[in-house]
Amino acid sequence: MVFLNRAERREATAFSRIGYSNPFLPERLELERQVLGDRFLSGAAVIHLPSNLQGQTVFKNFSLLLEHSRILADKMRPRVMAGKCQSDDDQHLYRETVIFHLYAKHFSIHEVPLVGRASDRPNTIGKSWSQFQRDYDWYLKLPELALPTYFNAAHCFSVFFQIDRAFGHIFEFIIGSSMPIANLRAAIWESIFTHDMSRYVRGVHQSMGDITTLIVGKSGTGKELVARAIGMSRYRAFNPVTRNFDDAELEPFYAVNLSALSAALIESELFGHCKGSFSGAVGDRIGWLEACGQNGTVFLDEIGELDLSIQVKLLRVLQTRTFSRVGETKTRYFLGKFVTATNRDLTTEIGRGKFREDLYYRLCADIVRTPTLQEQLKDRPEDLLELTRFIARGILIELPEEADSLASEVVKWVEQHLGNSYDWTGNIRELEQCVRNVLIRKSYTPNCRVPAVDLNGVPDRPALGVEAFLRSLLDGEMTLDEVSQLYVTMVYAQLGQYDLAGKKLGVDWRTVKDKVKVELLGKLKG
């Protein structure tokens, strides 16, 4: 009594693996090829969002896979009912083929261009729950079929919804089609679902919030965007009674740049405080750890700059999942997930005594590295236009029809004046400034090419470019006052506000104002 012939078994085996494979790795397309054979539509080595969304989809072969999975599932179902599906392996292949078919049929991520935030799309969850449950029961609620305890309609619906949101957020926040970007998307997918999605579905989804993700990379490489893609794609349980998801209207994501706040303010913002616990605490305040809830995420940017006194308290939260508001002794529980980021080498900071080793080992269970813009463009120069178009759309919100022309103008200017070998030391953040500069002045002066600066007319001081300034500094040729004036003026020239420069430098804004030299400022901006 044969349940599947050789060709059907090969196809069912591929379906059982496709649903759990990382969609951003080459393995996914190879599995599709095994199912479709000569009908497989080839393309890039990995999937990516087409630069021209018109009439294109993320998965070229999805409609063919939907057709194949339906045909195979409909062949297998009467055989199951006839008692021909006896072995554990056969039952497994039938279940997984049906599960792939249900996702392909009821969730439309492959059909809808992925633009805009996933949670804002009105048809994010595809067809209605009642339609999904009807098909689930038709294929899987059979007396002859053994279903694992975790295998229920509501849980499957929850995972499908999470997959849909994860695709949307990853493609929304991570722009480009290069292999470094494909590898970044794959790493984000594993941070959400782990490398073994079958294990994730069986129960690991319940404990993913306990694992902290550490994002490392140079400044301006989009670490917060990675954090948002991870934090906003967490599992939500579907409630078949209310016919809705837990916290359906919320995707709590709390981001804080630790380098911009004092230790006292960070403690209050994270843990909350009680009325009267310090000067200015005129009432009770709920901190981020308390506000984010079970499905929320707290993102701590620049974790390498966190004060040692706060590191101790953060370590306690990671170890025990408990904390107390400032000024109280009541124990509270952190139910959400931590995502952290840094552009520093934390192992070096540990050696310098600036970062706790025990805290580092609580952060490094899941590390994601963001590639530099130079790495991305070296692999695929065409990504410059795609990234520039994305930035232009964000700037020209009220005039979206002009975004493409501005992007083309920027790329043309870069090719003519900076060339394809320009290193983009400021990464995406520098590219954003380039787009704004070209929009306003039709030109861009990179920070690393700041015009020569005359140090306030000091005798025997030649005009200094950045490299000459560093040589003069290392040779001990400048006074302390000259160094501080030039450095403070450079920082102010970049940020444009006294308070922001003060936070960056760790001094009061009035000190910045006193140090800034107007004559130097004009030359730095010139």
Descriptive account of the structure:
It is a single chain. The protein has 526 residues and is an alpha/beta fold. It folds into 4 domains: 6-174 and 184-191, no CATH class; 238-369, P-loop containing nucleotide triphosphate hydrolases (Rossmann fold); 373-449, no CATH class; 466-525. 50% of the residues lie in helices and 7% in strands. The chain contains 23 helices and 11 strands. A 5-stranded parallel beta sheet has the order 4-7-10-1-11, with helices on one face. A two-stranded antiparallel sheet has the order 2-3. A two-stranded antiparallel sheet has the order 5-6. α6 (153-173) runs antiparallel to α9 and α7 runs parallel beside α9 (223-231).
Shape: globular
Q: Which structural category fits the helices and strands?
A: alpha/beta
Distance N to C terminus: 84 Å
Low-confidence runs:
110-124, 448-464
Q: Compute the CA-based radius of gyration.
A: 27 Å
Q: What order do the strands of the largest sheet run in, or round the barrel if closed?
A: 4-7-10-1-11
Q: How many domains would you count in the coordinates?
A: 4
Topology overview:
Elements: H1 6-18, H2 26-36, H3 62-81, H4 88-106, H5 129-140, H6 153-173, H7 179-193, H8 197-202, E1 213-216, H9 223-231, E2 238-239, E3 244-245, E4 253-257, H10 263-271, E5 272-273, E6 285-286, H11 288-291, E7 297-301, H12 308-320, E8 322-323, E9 332-333, E10 337-342, H13 346-351, H14 357-363, E11 366-369, H15 373-379, H16 383-395, H17 403-417, H18 427-441, H19 466-474, H20 480-495, H21 498-505, H22 509-515, H23 518-525
Parallel strand pairs: 1-10, 1-11, 4-7, 7-10
Antiparallel strand pairs: 2-3, 5-6, 8-9
